[in-house]
Amino acid sequence: MNWKMIYLARRNPALAPQDFPQAWREHSALGRQCPNVQDKVRGVAQCSRVLDVVPVHGLADDYDGVNLLQLRDLQAATDIWTDADTLRVMRPDEPRVFSAYVRNFTLTCCEAVLRDAPQTEVCVIAFLRPRDAVEPGDFHRECMRNDGAPWLAVAAAARARRVVLNEVYAEPPPGYEFAMIIEWWFASLDELVDALGRRDVRELLPVAIAGRSDALRSVFMLTRITHRRP
């Protein structure tokens, strides 16, 4: 099983939106001083919100970035928060970059790759909350019905080079009660706009999932990679 930590970040309000990616890169560079962190985290993709105006509806603008961290194993998702290097080096720098400490907006997930290809430039990332009447377990099962085939049958997703479903595994932090996180990777903004035109980004969802999702409390972000390792 492939385990990930995914966080949905707001910047420190003292940072301008266009300055956030560089501050985030500087924060990530501190990880070089943390051998234990490097051992736990196998890959990082920092995806900053696209600030360009695009003719796609339903995109959130009240968050600034999504971090996709590939973990060595599930235990790493617990150990990283008490790691001495993390507490000494990374945590004191977090308030400079983010609106809160990273642990307060991070989710632990199990990854299922539905369409496999390298990560490209642009990624639409959806954080889905089920409706109150829908049990999270039922929501997960519907998302993975027929091994996730309904996601690949959506016409708007046909141009996506890579499609990934991330099931939220552990108890999410307060305010981040999402059940599934989906990634649709496109080669460019132009390719995304060609795929969706002036339609709503929610058209990337299979009909059954859209009907079970709380549209007002789900988050759809248009991002591009601004830092990656390895």
Return the CATH architecture: 2-Layer Sandwich
Overall pLDDT:
95
Radius of gyration: 17 Å
Quaternary organisation? single chain
Total count of helical runs of at least 4 residues: 9
Physical arrangement of strands within the biggest beta sheet: 1-3-2-8-5-7-6-4
- Secondary-structure element sequence? EHHEEHHHEEHHEEHHE
Number of strands: 8
- The backbone outline, from C-alpha atoms, is globular
- How many individual domains? 1
Structural class, judged by helices and strands? alpha+beta
Share of helical residues: 10-25%
CATH fold category name: Alpha-Beta Plaits
Largest sheet: 8 strands, antiparallel, barrel
Distance between the termini: 20 Å
Stretches where pLDDT is under 50 for at least 5 consecutive residues are none
Task: Please describe the topology of this protein.
Blueprint: E1 2-9, H1 20-29, H2 35-40, E2 41-49, E3 65-71, H3 76-79, H4 84-90, H5 94-97, E4 106-115, E5 122-128, H6 136-143, H7 149-152, E6 162-168, E7 180-186, H8 189-196, H9 207-212, E8 219-229
Antiparallel strand pairs: 1-3, 1-4, 2-3, 2-8, 4-6, 5-7, 5-8, 6-7
Structure, explained:
There is one protein chain. This protein is α+β, with helices and mostly antiparallel strands and 230 residues long. It has a single domain (2-229), classed as 2-Layer Sandwich (Alpha-Beta Plaits), CATH 3.30.70.100. It is 25% helix and 29% strand. The chain has nine helices and eight strands. The chain has helices at 20-29, 35-40, 76-79, 84-90, 94-97, 136-143, 149-152, 189-196, 207-212; strands at residues 2-9, 41-49, 65-71, 106-115, 122-128, 162-168, 180-186, 219-229. An eight-stranded antiparallel β-barrel has the order 1-3-2-8-5-7-6-4. The chain is globular, with a radius of gyration of 17 Å. The two termini are 20 Å apart.
